[in-house]
Design a protein that fits this description.
Distance between the termini: 34 Å
Order of helices and strands: EHEHEHEHEHEEHHEEHEHHH
Structural class: alpha/beta
Number of strands: 10
Strand order of the largest sheet: 2-1-3-4-5-8
Shape: globular
Radius of gyration: 19 Å
Largest sheet: 6 strands, parallel
Number of helices: 11
């Protein structure tokens, strides 16, 4: 793949210490020079809340991959701050990590991502920045401990029969790397929904593990209130509200995304959940 070096050659990953950022950065290693950005990064420390360090970190980069902190109370403000810094630094292409079904009024943090998508399009019209949006469905790795045998029990705060188009995080990272390397010449203005190859419930995932390995997995559905009592000490009130709303949504809705775009961008079929069982 040929890189357009007119505005720099490196690629910056905002949110590089999270599981998604690490996966995208790893997928780019050996293909591009990657700048792993975070508040604590030794080489490129940045502060999304204030914008400190962003222009310096983006200078010399041809592309930026933006991942916000999970269920942040004001993600649109973080993104606009980063877009302004990217434009000031001469970045040619920003890829925004959104979510499948961003316009879902019952899920506040999904709605924030819809607002981010609109902010990205508006900023592009005003400042000429190229953009691409990725909308992944739920990660299969959310159940990694069950898939690899680290855990033998599983409790989720929604119905065990809600179905998801679980996607392999490494597939998302591979798509992200391809979009970033091929750049805006192929991907400007595109919004890609990324789903896995089949619709599965948590009950289905547990059954796949048990059949493939002979392990017994104790699974149950807890109430949202019970889940919150167990985890509330590590979350703000806003995070509890946003996650609780999402779980309640899952309780009576499926969360599905198509796999055709994923397959096209990968050049192969997406990884099935059964392939991740060990």
């Amino acid at each position: 793949m040929n890189l357009d070096v007119s505005r720099g050659t490196d690629i910056a990953i905002v949110g590089a210490t999270g599981k998604t950022g690490r996966a995208v950065a790893d997928a780019l290693d050996g293909v591009a020079v990657v700048r792993r950005l975070s508040r604590s990064a030794p080489d490129f420390p940045v502060d999304l809340e204030t914008g400190d360090g962003l222009v310096e970190a983006f200078t010399g980069c041809r592309g930026v991959y933006f991942i916000a902190p999970n269920v942040h109370p004001n993600e649109p403000a973080l993104l606009v701050r980063a877009l302004d810094a990217a434009a000031s630094a001469g970045v040619n292409h920003v890829v925004y990590h959104s979510v499948a079904w961003p316009y879902s009024p019952r899920m506040p943090h999904h709605m924030d991502k819809a607002r981010c998508e609109e902010a990205l399009r508006a900023f592009s019209s005003e400042r000429g920045l190229h953009w691409t949006i990725l909308q992944p469905c739920a990660y299969a790795q959310n159940f990694e401990a069950v898939l690899d045998g680290t855990a033998a029990d599983l409790a989720v705060p929604y119905s065990l029969d809600t179905t998801f188009s679980f996607i392999n995080l490494d597939d998302v990272a591979e798509v992200a790397a391809r979009v970033l390397i091929e750049g805006p010449e192929l991907h400007h203005g595109a919004t890609y929904e990324l789903g896995g190859p089949e619709a599965l419930s948590v009950r289905d995932v547990v059954r796949l593990v048990e059949v493939a390995t002979g392990r017994v997995v104790a699974s149950r559905s807890s109430s949202v209130d019970e889940w919150m009592r167990l985890h509330s000490d590590s979350m703000s009130a806003d995070e509890q509200h946003r996650l609780g709303a999402m779980f309640e949504f899952y309780d009576d809705r499926d969360f599905l995304a198509g796999s055709a775009v994923t397959a096209t961008l990968l050049g192969r079929e997406p990884t099935p959940v059964r392939a991740l069982i060990s």
